[in-house]
Write a structure and sequence with these properties.
The chain is 25% helix and 31% strand. It has 201 residues and is of the alpha/beta class. A hairpin with a 1-residue loop joins strand 11 and strand 12.
Length: 201
């Protein structure tokens, strides 16, 4: 069973539908017992860094998330859910993230000659043998919606990068913690393959 953390951050049902399509049993929940009993955990995210951290605190999920990861449960953050895995974001100065991985989230510069936020399809440059990308081709296209991007401290944790005015870190993996800035649930067959790879861990 895969548990999708419900903290009123939106986009939960589209993720659940993609998992249903793959015949991966899943539940949308914030119940500590259900999360504890799940085999894998998924943290989606739509909204702002500060608001979503506040919601995680409101529902007493911060300690729960740390405990789940200490128990070696595969944990995937999607879009803002990935950004929350890190220490801080320029979107919410002074707000601490979950601090599970080292790095910071910065805003795309407005002078790149590109629209911010990045909305649409872009190709992934795969590196460092990420388990989410098993049997996938380099330069596969996935769907993004974001104004902020990751600068991870440890390049070895970065499993995919992307170019949008600058090269940015689009996916990370450290032990049982995974993250992708893009939306696999909105990325067609490529995204479904990524979710299946996570489900098969």
């Amino acid at each position: 069973m895969l548990a999708i953390i419900d903290y009123d951050a939106g986009n939960l049902k589209s993720v659940s539908k993609a998992l249903d399509y793959l015949n991966i049993k899943n539940v949308i929940t914030r119940d500590e017992k259900k999360l504890s009993n799940a085999d894998k955990i998924l943290l989606p995210g739509v909204g702002s860094f500060g608001d979503c951290m506040e919601k995680l605190k409101k529902f007493n999920l911060v300690d729960t998330i740390h405990e789940l990861i200490l128990r070696d449960k595969p944990f995937l953050g999607i879009c803002l859910g990935m950004q929350l895995l890190f220490d801080e974001s320029e979107e919410a100065p002074g707000v601490k993230g979950l601090g599970l991985l080292e790095g910071k989230i910065i805003k795309f510069k407005d002078d790149m000659g590109l629209k911010v936020p990045q909305i649409g399809w872009n190709s992934l440059h795969l590196q460092n043998d990420g388990r989410l990308y098993k049997d996938m081709e380099d330069e596969s296209y996935v769907y993004f919606v974001h104004s902020y991007h990751l600068v991870a401290k440890d390049e070895k944790q970065v499993k995919a990068t992307c170019d949008y005015g600058v090269r940015f870190h689009a996916s990370v993996e450290q032990k049982n913690v995974f993250g992708c800035q893009f939306h696999p649930e909105k990325s067609g067959d490529v995204g479904l393959k990524i979710l299946k790879n996570f489900g098969d861990l």
